[in-house]
Write a structure and sequence with these properties.
Elements (H helix, E strand, L loop, with lengths): L6 H11 L1 H7 L1 H35 L2 H21 L3 H6 L1 H23 L4 H4 L15 E3 L2 E3 L1 H19 L8 H20 L3 H18 L5 H19 L1 H11 L11 H11 L26 H34 L3 H26 L16 H29 L13 H4 L6
Antiparallel strand pairs: 1-2
Helix pairs in contact: 1-2, 3-4, 3-14, 3-16, 4-16, 6-8, 6-9, 8-9, 8-10, 8-15, 8-16, 9-10, 10-11, 10-15, 11-12, 13-14, 14-15, 14-16, 15-16
């Protein structure tokens, strides 16, 4: 029998029975609502990203970047469809293999980066297969004219690993050895490879995702003081050993206007772009900063052009779409039928949310300039594909939850015990 979705009745039921009991009663309906909101937000951000990529790149690159981005989107949608129709619990069972597969290219790039730090020339390093330095960094693998950033895939592999580990072994979460030391020794090695590859920003973001999943999994809260201190010590050590990163913080971030011709050039022009906009902006495709003034206008700083052309209303609309996407992911995680799905949904949602937040903070100057893209909006194949793969896993969570609800609703009713029924009641002719 179909139940009407009355908001007042739902609120009363949630107050009386508790949130999780309420979610269990309305699992099927809420899964459909969350899935629809997720699809709307993802498609809206992807279409918006294509439109803004046209505005920021067509004058300089023509249609080249648009065609490549469209190919990445198609590849991501195909991967999302595969993940959606695949049971996420199968991936969680193979979490070690997935994490190892993601760590191998990271180890290769970490080796290249270490060789670069030892003084090996860029010409010698470029002789290694699939490697080409970009602004002195070796974070990408090049296959023809396409580049892949393995650290993006490693971040999703870490989420799958933690969802499988703590989802299948919930009783280990409060323990120090099995609940913290053992999984963090594996995850810490992968984070170290990302850091050795030269990507401090993705290392910090991945570490933040790990901390959130540890909290949700039920790790004792006193351990987080040690973990936060270790993360802060790592950031301080990297800044101390890297004068370029330290100058980026002390000079270009704190005083971009004083260094607008050197280290603060990018942030200064990003703030000029945002400051020249009003509530409605200067108009679509009328930005002045993208015309050879703002570097990387189509990747890390595309939101500055969004603010300049579409104003604060455009930025607000994009932010609302991100909130809708993250909220849908969290809701699907809460509606999951097991702890694996819950941790997977929360991890994916938080990963997308912190990426979007970090990008907006960098563009506005709230955080130091770093290479963090805006999910589904910025140009970038690896970020686009990984985000779509995460969306596909969220779809798998919703599909498994709805399938279990459907199986329970269509379960056959147990036949009554007719041996307890009087024979004359079954056969009226027996009475005569």
């Amino acid at each position: 029998m179909r139940r009407d979705f009355d908001s007042s009745a739902c609120a009363k039921a949630a107050a009386d029975k508790g949130v999780f009991a309420f979610l269990d009663d309305y699992r099927d309906r809420l899964c459909r609502i969350a899935a629809v909101l997720l699809i709307i937000s993802v498609l809206a951000l992807s279409i918006f990203g294509i439109v803004m990529l046209y505005s920021t790149s067509v004058a300089v690159y023509g249609e080249k970047l648009l065609i490549k981005q469209a190919k990445w989107i198609c590849l991501g949608i195909f991967g999302a469809a595969v993940c959606c129709f695949m049971d996420y619990r199968v991936l969680c069972r193979h979490r070690r293999k997935i994490l190892l597969l993601a760590a191998l290219p990271l180890a290769y790039l970490a080796l290249i980066h270490i060789l670069a730090l030892t003084g090996l020339s860029a010409q010698s390093l470029n002789r290694f297969p699939l490697v080409h330095g970009v602004n002195g960094a070796y974070r990408w693998l090049f296959i023809g004219s396409y580049s892949i950033q393995p650290s993006e895939f490693a971040k999703l592999a870490i989420i799958v690993f933690m969802a499988g580990y703590y989802g299948l072994n919930p009783r280990w979460a409060p323990l120090f050895g099995r609940g913290l030391l053992r999984p963090l020794s594996v995850i810490g090695a992968v984070l170290l490879l990302i850091l050795l590859g030269g990507s401090l920003s993705l290392t910090v973001i991945s570490a933040a995702v790990v901390l959130v999943l540890l909290f949700v999994a039920g790790v004792r809260q006193r351990y987080f003081i040690i973990l936060a201190a270790a993360l802060g010590l790592m950031i301080w050590g990297v800044l101390a050993l890297s004068p370029g990163r330290l100058r980026r913080v002390t000079e270009s971030w704190l005083h971009p206007e004083n260094y607008r011709q050197t280290t603060g050039y990018q942030l200064h022009h990003s703030q000029v772009a945002l400051g020249s906009a009003s509530w409605a902006g200067v108009g679509f495709n009328r930005s002045r900063m993208k015309e050879h003034y703002l570097p990387e206008a189509h990747t890390d700083f595309i939101m500055a052009i969004v603010g300049e052309e579409l104003g604060y209303l455009g930025l607000l609309l994009v932010t609302l779409m991100y909130l809708l996407l993250v909220g849908s992911a969290f809701l699907l995680g809460m509606l999951a039928v097991d702890r694996q799905g819950m941790l997977l949904g929360i991890g994916i949602g938080f990963s997308v949310g912190i990426h979007a937040l970090a990008n907006l903070a960098v563009v506005s100057g709230a955080l130091p300039t770093t290479g963090v893209t805006a999910p589904l909006v910025s140009y970038g194949g690896s970020s686009m594909v990984v985000t779509w793969l995460g969306i596909g896993l969220l779809g798998s969570i919703a599909r498994v939850a709805r399938r279990r609800e459907l199986n329970q609703a269509m379960a056959p009713v147990r036949a009554p015990n007719f041996e307890l029924v009087q024979p004359e009641l079954l056969n009226p002719r027996a009475q005569t």
